[in-house]
Design a protein that fits this description.
heterodimer, A: alpha/beta, Rossmann fold, six-stranded parallel sheet, 5 helices, 6 strands, 39% helix, globular, B: mainly alpha, two-stranded antiparallel ribbon, 4% strand
Chain lengths: 148, 190
């Protein structure tokens, strides 16, 4: 299937972070459709709707009220229809233990929230390019790990 | 009840070719398979045959491409995979020569078609494929990193490690540790 637009979901409780992410996404060449969620519960309620078009990649903030990123990751990996989703953790934590824990729990990508807009754009661009290749080439998704 | 898991390794080219042969034989037309992404028929299929073929192959997630450019991109990708997976043959000439001779287009033309369609360069794709292959070799556990570097035509282990780190953000050993922990956890949870 030739892929024309990447569907992307982001769950982050911080208004500014969501806005920055959206702006960075708009400046990238790859065609995307972004859905934003204020917390993990909103995201999960959306993903389990019947007939919903599943995103090619989900970005999860780790620290969110009501349902945090780790809980979402766990639910996604244990849900029969969602368990193949590519999941990127998008967090301020740079603790090695946190990072390893998210990978072991099934995250594909770990992004340390960049401090500048330029770096954010670059990180998102790298993730989307790779993600595009994983959706259009015979690459092994089970071994897809990326840390930025 | 005693549960047991086994782990599988696939030769995707072989699997795809077997599926293609099986389905095309069912169609009853004479054909030749050129690589996994290209089939030549002895005569043009009728619209009805084309439809039947599309539905037979569709069952296996195989689509007939009508877009020439996308088809060329797919052939480039298949050639990259073939070049990398063929570890037995020494790489006597460089990849760009191999690719342009195999596909019969100039490398400059192939590069521009590829970049336009995939947002990434052929060189990047080659690295991505090599690292993807290195990952599966690392997980097979019976090869040292030195042997893997040699198999994948890296000049040294440090060159492989550096490219692995640059592509994935992780060292080969950190990668291995994470995947092993995942498997352990999956086993203890069930």
């Amino acid at each position: 299937m030739p892929l024309h637009t990447l569907n992307i979901a982001l769950a982050d409780d911080d208004d500014d972070d969501r806005t920055l992410f959206k702006e960075a996404m708009n400046e990238i060449k790859i065609k995307t459709k972004l859905s934003l969620f204020n917390n993990g519960k909103e995201l999960m309620d959306y993903l389990i709707l019947p007939n919903v078009i599943l995103p090619e990649i989900v970005f999860l903030d780790l620290n969110m009220p009501i349902k945090n990123g780790m809980q979402c990751l766990y639910e996604i990996r244990n849900h029969p229809r969602l368990h193949d989703l590519l999941v990127a953790i998008y967090s301020t934590s740079s603790s090695e233990a946190d990072i390893e824990e998210t990978f072991v729990n099934g995250a594909n990508i770990y992004i340390n929230k960049p401090t500048s807009f330029g770096a954010l754009k670059q990180a998102i661009e790298k993730v989307l390019q790779l993600n595009w290749q994983y959706h259009t080439s015979a690459l092994n998704k089970d071994n897809f790990l990326l840390r930025i | 009840m005693q549960l047991m898991r086994i782990y599988l390794k696939f030769d995707f080219n072989l699997v795809c070719k077997a599926v293609l042969q099986e389905q095309l034989d069912a169609l009853g037309m004479k054909y030749t398979i050129h690589g996994v992404g290209e089939i030549e028929f002895s005569r043009p299929p009728t619209p009805k045959e084309e439809q039947e073929m599309a539905s037979l192959l569709g069952n296996y997630g195989i689509e007939i491409m009508d877009d020439q450019q996308m088809a060329l991109v797919q052939r480039i990708k298949d050639s990259v995979t073939e070049w990398i997976n063929d570890v037995e043959n020494p790489k006597l000439y460089n990849f760009s020569t191999y690719l342009s001779e195999k596909l019969d287009y100039s490398y400059t033309y192939l590069s521009s078609v590829f970049s336009e369609a995939t947002y990434s360069s052929i060189e990047n794709f080659v690295i991505l494929k090599k690292i993807d292959f290195a990952k599966s070799l690392i997980l097979q556990n019976n090869l040292t990193l030195t042997e893997i570097a040699y198999k994948l035509n890296y000049s040294s282990v440090s060159h492989l490690s550096a490219q692995f780190k640059k592509t994935t953000g992780l060292t080969p050993s950190a990668f291995q540790k994470i995947i092993l922990k995942r498997k352990e956890r999956a086993l203890t949870q069930k």
